[in-house]
């Protein structure tokens, strides 16, 4: 069965995963006639370049389809933006045929079945797992010249509200590892649950498999690009990737010590 939703899985011998489920910009050809938004409007709320940040030496799950086709970080009733209130007030679809709607709904379930299988395999092989759930967010809602409120908008927001209590020491180690590095030449502002607490992927996997590991949602403020034009700053994208890459060593040390106790 050919899916309308496209994604790529890269597997290596690692208990760690990098997910970039909002990086995608593609719309399946069969859906394009029913989509009201321009590519530019879609890009504004997508998380471009997060797939590049997820190119770590660990397992990867990268979604190529736009969240405006099927949002895999929402539960099924909200995964297809049928009402403006589900999509920042945007009117996304017109006259989406029932058969295509049902196809997308089925694909949501199928993709989650595959994710379930991958995490179960990881647990069976290694006994534990950790997922980097990589996203980005807009902090200039009123225009490209708006001064960013850095108190309300941390450079990196960690969504950890749904992580089980047993992993709180791990989260603290992970946050400290990020803060021990430099980002854009300065110590990064890394805080928990200020802008986002974790979406459906985070909630679902932490609930299902939280005894064996955890998902942390990592939301980079879009300082690495112009959030209005989409123009990237390649050096800053590389810096975000390097920050995550360096943190993998901390995870390895933590789990090695934890399993020796």
Describe what you observe in this structure.
The protein is an alpha/beta fold. The chain has a single domain, classed as 3-Layer(aba) Sandwich (Aminopeptidase), CATH 3.40.630.40. The chain has 6 helices and 7 strands. It has helices at 39-45, 50-53, 98-126, 168-179, 200-209, 234-260, and strands at 7-10, 16-20, 59-63, 129-137, 156-159, 190-192, 213-221. A 7-stranded mixed sheet has the order 1-3-2-4-7-5-6, with helices on both faces. α4 runs antiparallel to α6. It is globular and about 55 Å long. The termini are far apart. 38% of the residues are buried. The mean pLDDT is 96.
In whole angstroms, the N-to-C terminal distance is 46 Å
**Which stretches of 5+ consecutive residues score pLDDT under 50?**
none
Percentage of residues in helical conformation: 25-40%
The secondary structure category is alpha/beta
- Note the main sheet: 7 strands, mixed
Principal-axis shape: globular
Number of structural domains? 1
Find the CATH superfamily. Answer: Zn-dependent exopeptidases
Give the CATH class.
Answer: Alpha Beta
Give the strand order of the largest sheet, numbering strands 1, 2, ... along the chain. 1-3-2-4-7-5-6
The number of strands is: 7
Arithmetic mean pLDDT: 96
> SSE order, as H and E?
EEHHEHEEHEHEH
Strand content: 5-15%
Overall radius of gyration:
18 Å
SS field, number of helical segments: 6
Using the coordinates shown, work out and report the CATH topology.
Aminopeptidase
CATH architecture assignment: 3-Layer(aba) Sandwich
